[in-house]
Amino acid sequence: MKCKICQSESIHFANAKILDKYNIDYFKCQNCGFVQTEEPYWLSEAYTNAIASSDVGLVFRNLQFSKITSNIIFSIFAHSSKFLDYGGGYGLFVRLMRDEGFDFYWYDKYCDNIFAKGFIAESEEEKYELVTAFEVFEHFSDPLTEIQNLFQFSRNILFSTELLPENNPKPGEWWYYSLQDGQHIAIYTVKSLAIIAERLGLNFYSNGLNLHLITEKQIPEVLFENLSYAPPPNNKKPSLITKDYLQVIGKTEEIEQELTTTSPLAPQQEKFKVIIDGVFFQSFKTGIARLWKSLLEEWVKDGFSENILVLDRGGTVPKISGVNYRNIQLYNYSMAAFDREILQKICDEENADLFISTYYTTPISTPSVFMAYDMIPEVLGWNLSEPTWQEKHFGVRHGVAYITISENTARDLVKFFPDISPESITVAYCGIDSNLFPASSEEINSFKTKYGITKPYFLLVGARSGYKNGILFFQGFDQLYNKHGFDIVCSSFDPVFEDEFRVYTSGCTVHKLQLNDLELRLAYSGAVALAFPSQYEGFGLPVLEALACGCPVITCPNSSLPEVAGEAALYVNYDDVEGMVNALCDVQKPAIRNLLIERGLAQAKKFSWRKMADKVRSVLIKTSLLNLKLRAVNLIIFPDWLQSEESLYLELAEVIKVLGTHEDRNQITLLIDTSNISENSEIDVNLFLSSIVMNLLMEEDVDITDGLEISPVDQLDSLQWEVLLPRLHSRIRLNNENEEAIAQAKLETIPLILLDNLTNMRFISEA
């Protein structure tokens, strides 16, 4: 069967029963991935009702799309023009848009107009600034013809249809096939929609999920992605859409499961909370996005996700089961100061102990951990007055602890911010996805056939210009005596091949591909080598990915790259063309090539997202304890705050006096547990301790402020205790203690000392 989009061969993909009676076949295009059914003879029966009974999300969808469409029209189109909703259903969307002041009209050949009477598109000759077509494309039996008919109304079409997920689910594995109604007969991919736009001579934009724009206008891709999300309201009650859908399609057993899994949990002990701002996801889906998605997935596995709240900017953060989200507005650099206020308000509302951003945002006062991915702008002398780098530097100054993804980035961070103590920086290397491993020869051959790669090839991944230094590879490649025996594969988001490189590839085929993760594994596995001659990297994830796939690597011995590749790469100085030529020749030699592959696979095993997640988690927990001002010697007491104030005062005063006059007081922190102070207690801990310190000074001339550090310890959760316990030297025994708190803290391994023994006890040995 031929693909209805690109006319390539479509192979049998699946078989499924629709309308509970017809067994039909599905076919998937080998080129563009478009999924189509066999000729849909059942449609007249499927459309007994124009709106499927299972479409319980109709109202919610219209409300969401009305907000999104308003934003898109204001930002891209002439908002005073006429607009058309094609396949307008009951007319609810038209009514909503007209309520918002947009001159919208309704068009639908099959459905009754209920809400937009009086605003029907009378003539098919009328032209409109923009046509919307929500949940229409998947119903087309002849997509190209029907889509071309759409464009008789306008050269700009905003439409929704769910994209086939990358794991290629079959009917029964993905709800969007809508088997019970039999109306969804066309399932699209990004590539299939891009082909349609190209045939029409128009531009294509997508949010990568369900909303797309084919238009004559040229806009930044990031702009459409940002505009194509509307944050759902912060409902106090969970939506019943899922339950209603399961009920309509007769999945009664799953309703009970859904109710069980969404029922309210019993109150639990309050955990320390970290807020993560997912701001990076609103603009990019590159390596940093992969890093944070991987960390969140690992933290779900170990339970740390229970301590996390992710701020979801306009619905752009990937939804991972087990992660808590809070929807907030999209970030705008022109309103950075206002954004800080909003973040602080959220931190206060959520009782956050700590804040970390995926990309440089900060609250006002909540302690922040700053993650530095690289110092490229600083090292390469970029314009640091640009808003992005201004916010980065603000974030650096606001940080109380730092994480970098390489030792080199840590050194550069201190170099440009000398006030930062190296001890406050933790290096946490990136990991490698488990689905990256050497592909079989059959998989590689299938990949090469799919993309018409007929020769051995060198691979470049990501950007090639500027500091990425792709010019070095092309100059070296041009001098290979056998260069015409090779192809070049370039995988990046930008399909354009730069003119500056064309002079070096004359007579050779350059394949410009936009590969997904599964295809990238095959590209790595089949390549002669990955050429990655970057002048500077914060980490160098493509290098690690290539090593994991058994792909030899040619890179430069600068910045973080030697940390990633170790002894498993061929190194060439960033401006050494002759060295690049030699490396391109050496990597063709079987002995060298096999050695590099063997070393590369071993090197890749040193990196994992689990290791990184553990390190980052440890930093976050340790940073949440910074307010305790831990020192070389940390002693803890557990007074019973329910005893009389007089006896409590006398006991604490004695402990503080002994430690305040101790020879090692400059190295001691006294931790005082306050966990059993009731909410109704009249005791203010800080005032109470201050009065003790003041009275010791006035009555006994003992200046506690000269050395000893005193830190109240409020409720800590189990993770914080795990980090604190190894830092504790001893517990001082009191006459009246909070036995419950002692038991919860699990102090069995901590030495117990008596107050009478403290005076003559030395904690710090003299040099």
TrEMBL record:
GO terms for molecular function: methyltransferase activity. Coiled coil: none annotated. Keywords: Methyltransferase, Transferase. It comes from the Bacteria. One of its GO terms (biological process) is methylation. This is Methyltransferase domain-containing protein. It comes from Floridaenema aerugineum BLCC-F46.
